Every structure is written in C-alpha cells, then in structure tokens.
C-alpha cells in the first residue's frame, strides 16, 4: 500500500505499524517526531499504530541551533 511521507509517496506492507515504517525508512528512533494525518503520535503508540492506505505522515527531525 502507499502512504505519503513528507510529500513523497512510499510503498509499505499492508498493516504496517509506525515503528515498522521507521525501520523501513532507516529513521533514527531518537530526535524525531511523527505526525499522521496532522496529529502528532506519541512514541509510546508507534508500535501499535497501524498505517492505512493514503495516510499522510510528516517526519520532523530535531536540529541544533537557533
């Protein structure tokens, strides 16, 4: 199935969880935040949140500086 990650189409397995997507995209587990369909998802829910076709995700990476 397909989802949008930072406005890029990504093909993932059906019934993938958010934590599985982070592994597939080789994202770090610290220093990032993820919103699904404009809702921030707490890290404690990443393993249980199943993604759906056409979900829109925004991955935000922490950066140093000001």
TrEMBL record:
Top-level taxon of origin: Bacteria
CDD domains linked to this entry: Ubl_ThiS
Alphabetized InterPro entries for the sequence: Beta-grasp_dom_sf (IPR012675), Mopterin_synth/thiamin_S_b (IPR016155), Thi_S (IPR010035), ThiS/MoaD-like (IPR003749)
Alphabetical list of PANTHER family matching this protein: SULFUR CARRIER PROTEIN THIS
Listed name of the protein: Sulfur carrier protein
Organism in which the protein naturally occurs: Bacteroides reticulotermitis
């Amino acid at each position: 199935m397909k989802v949008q990650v930072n406005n890029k189409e990504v093909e993932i397995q059906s019934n993938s969880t958010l934590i599985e997507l982070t592994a597939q995209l080789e994202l770090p587990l610290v220093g990032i935040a993820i919103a699904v369909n404009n809702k921030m998802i707490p890290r404690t829910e990443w393993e249980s949140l199943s993604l759906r076709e056409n979900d829109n995700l925004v991955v935000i990476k922490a950066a140093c500086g000001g």
